[in-house]
Amino acid sequence: MPQFVFHLLGNAHLDPVWLWDWREGLNEGLITCRTILDLMDEDPELTFCRGEAAIYQHIEITDPPTFARIRARIAEGRWEVIGGTMLQPDTNLPATETFARHFLHGQDYFTRTFGSPVRVAWAADSFGHAAGLPDIMAAAGINFFAFTRPDPKTVPLAKPAFWWQGPGEARILSYRPPMGWYGTEHDEPTRRLDGLLAEAIKGDLKNVGVFYGLGDHGGGPTRRQLADIRQWAAAHPEVKVMHSGMHRFFGALQAEIAHRPKAFLPTHLGELNFCLRGCYASVAKFKYAYRHTEALVQRAENTDATISAALDRTPADTGSIWDSVLFNSFHDILPGTSIERAMEEQIAWLCGAQHESRRIELSALNALASQIDTRVRKPRGHAPSGVSALVWNPHPHPFEGPLEIEACMDYRPIPQYRGEDIDKVPLELLGPAGKPLRFQCIATEHSTMTDIAWRKRVVAPLKIPAFGWSMLEFAWVEGARAVQLPQHPASAPKPGVIDNGIYRVEASAGNTSIHVWHKGKALFAGKGLSAVVFDDPWGAWGGMGDEPDALKQVKARETWHIDRVETMESGPERAMLWVRFAGKQSWLTLTIALSADRAAVDVAARVLWNERSARLKLVMPGASSAEFDVPGASVKRQPSGEVPGGRWVKVHGPADGFGFASDSLYAFDCTNGQFRATIARASRYANSTKTDPKQRPWLPAADCGELKFKFLFAPNNTRLPILAGQLEQAPVVLLVPQHNGSLPRQGSLASLTPDSLQLLTFKRARDGRGFIVRCRETQGRSVKPRLTWMGQAIALDPVKANSIATWRLIHHARRWRAIRSTILED
C-alpha cells in the first residue's frame, strides 16, 4: 500500500499585468486555457486548476466556444475553479472591504456561471498575507487556503498544513508546500517530486500537494512534464501519484487529520509576513491614486445607498467602479512591480473610477438637497442673496472638526472692496438654525485678480450628524454680526510657531527637524520630525532574496534642512505653518495646521522627487514598537524592518507615544528608536537587480515628479481610527440651489454605535432585496451594536471581538428589520 499520496495540482499562474499590459495579460489567459484544453484532449488523466473570475469573464465574452469547452471539463471534474476572487490581489495593502468585494464578486460569478461557489482560496504569488484574512475568507464561504509566499526560509511553519486563525477566531485549513513554488520549470518536475518525497518522509502527513506547470505568463503543464511525472511515479511505488485538484486535495487532508489528535495540526495566529518588502512602497504615484480611488468609491456608494434608501430612489450601479478597485488591487499592480507603461494605463483606469464615483455622489446629494429646505434669507436692498451649502457626513458617527467652504459672494466682484480693502468684506456663515457660526477667512484656491473681492473662502468648526447633513448659509452681509471667539483659539504667537493649547508646533530655517509638543510634552524624542533620504539600490521588490540590507534602510544619503518657514494663518480658528525641507535635488513642503479645540495636527504634504536608487522617509524619534491597522485586523509589531501598514498606526515609546494616520502611505518601520514612514522610492520600474544611482541612466526612476498626500498626528487612543477614516473620506461640501423642502435643514439618516465598530459598507443588496450593512469590531471586545436608521432603532446581533459582521436590512410592514447575513448573501 502506498505510503504517501501526491496530489498533482496543475496550474498556470498568470499575471494579467506585469512585464506587459492588461490587454496582453487577458488575451494570454485565453491562449493558455486553449492550450490546456488541447492537452486535455490528448491526455485523459490531466487535471487543471484555474482561478480569477476576471479571466473567465474575458474568455466568456471573447471566445464562447473555448468557454464552452471549459464548462465541459468542469462538469467532467478535470477542470477545477479555485480562488474565489476576481483576481489574485495583493494581500496586505487593500482595504478590508476590498477583500470582501473580491470574494463577493468572484463567488457570485462562479456560482451563477458554474453552479457553485469556490471553497479554496489561492494566493500563488502575493507578497505576504494580512492577519485578518481568515475572518474575511470564512465570511465568504472559504474553507481552505493554499499559498506559496512567503517561503519556508522567510516564514518558518511547523508543518505544511496548519490552521490559520484570524483575530475573530475564524479558522481556515491552510497549506504551503514544504519546498518549491507554485509552478515548475520545463525540466523541474522530477527534482520537485524527489524533494517533496524527502520532506514527506521527515514529516507525518500522508497527503502532499504538488504544484506544477509553467507560470508567470500562463503556460501550465506540458507534455514533457507529464511524461517525466509518469516516469517518476513508475519508479516510486511507495507513492500514489494522482492528478487531482485543490478541493480534492484539501478534502483528503481533512479526512486524514480527522483520525488524528485534535492538536495534530498546529494553529498559526496572526499574519503570514513578510516578503519582498520593497513592494510595500514602490511606485507611490499609483499607490496614492489607488488609495484615493478606494476611498472615493466607498464614500460614493455609502452616500448613494443611504440617500437612495431614505428617498425610495433607485441606487446607482457601482459595479464598474468596484471593478476598477478590484482589478487594480492585483499583486503586481498595487505593489508597483509592473512596467512603467502598464502602471500609467492602470492609473488612467483609476482616474475613470474616481470621476464616476464623484458623479454618483453628486447625483445622490442633489437628490437629497432637492428634498431639504435650502432657502436663505432675503437680501436687503440690491445686495445679492447668500449661498446655500449642503455639508454631508458620510460616516455613521457624528463629525466634529474644521471644514472649508468657498463660494462667490456675487456674480461680479464687489465694487466697494478693492485693493487694500479686499479683506474687509463683511461675511456671515449661518448654521442650520439660522444662527451665526464661528469662522475664519482664509486664502481662496485661486490667485487671480487678487485686488478684487469676489470669491471668499472660510474655515469653520462644524458638527455634522452621523450619516447626515447640515445646511449652511454663506453670504456678504453689510453689518454682519460678530461671532464669539473660540474658548481655546489657535494662534501663531511668533514666527515659526503655531499653538492651539493642545499642540504646539515650531519650525525654523536652518534646522533639520520640526518640533511638536502635546500638552507641554515633546511628541517626538530627540530632534523632532525630519525628512531623510536613504540609499535604496534595490529593485521594485526590494531584495529578491530578502537580503538583510534590503529589509530596512540604515545608510542616510541626505538629511534635508528646513530652508523656509512661513506663517500662513494665525487664528483664531486655525493657525498654519508652511515648512519646506530642501535637499540637493528634491524638496518636501508640509502645510501644518492646528485648529481650535482639535486634538490633532493636520498636515498636507507635497514632494518634488528627483532621486535615483533612494528612499524618502519621514522620521519621528521616540518609538519602540507600534500597532498597525491591516486588512481585517490590527497587529502589534516589534521592530522588524520595513512592514506594510494601513490607515493608522499607534506608536508606542518611552513617553506617551502618538498616533499617525495618512491617506496614502503603506510602508513603515521602527528602527533605532524611530518610527519612519516611507513616502517614495526611486527604484526602476519592474527591476529586480541591485542598481547604483548612476547605472543605466536611461531607465526612469519611479515617482520622479510631484506627489501629494495628507497625514495627521493625534493621541494613540480609540479616536485614531475615526480620525483616519475622516481623513480618507472627508465630509462633502456642495453648493446647492435654494428652494423649500420637506426635510429639515439638519438631519441624520443613520448611525451606528459604539465607535469601536468600523463601518465597512452600506450598500444596496446585489439581488435588489434591501440593503447591506457590514462592520468590523476594532477594539478587541464583544459589543452590542446599535443601529438607528431613518429614526428607527433596529436590533442587531452581538458582534464578537475583532470579527466582521454583515446584516441585510429589509423594509417590511412599514418597518426595517435586520437579518444576519454573509458576504456571499450580499
Chain-wise SSE layout:
Elements: E1 4-10, H1 22-42, E2 48-50, H2 53-62, H3 64-76, E3 79-81, H4 96-114, E4 120-123, H5 133-139, E5 144-147, E6 161-165, E7 171-175, H6 189-202, E8 207-212, H7 223-234, E9 239-243, H8 246-257, E10 267-269, H9 284-311, H10 319-327, H11 340-369, E11 387-392, E12 399-408, E13 414-418, E14 427-430, E15 440-442, E16 452-453, E17 455-464, E18 468-476, E19 491-494, E20 497-499, E21 503-506, E22 515-518, E23 521-522, E24 530-535, H12 548-551, E25 556-559, E26 561-570, E27 574-582, E28 587-595, E29 601-609, E30 614-621, E31 625-630, E32 633-637, E33 643-644, E34 648-652, E35 658-662, E36 667-671, E37 674-681, E38 705-714, H13 720-728, E39 732-735, E40 746-748, E41 750-753, E42 757-764, E43 771-777, E44 786-789, E45 792-795, E46 804-812, E47 815-821
Parallel strand pairs: 1-8, 1-9, 2-3, 4-5, 5-7, 6-10
Antiparallel strand pairs: 6-7, 11-18, 11-39, 12-17, 13-16, 14-18, 15-17, 18-40, 19-20, 20-21, 21-22, 22-23, 24-25, 24-30, 26-27, 27-28, 28-29, 29-38, 30-37, 31-32, 31-34, 33-36, 34-35, 35-38, 36-37, 41-44, 42-43, 43-46, 44-45, 46-47
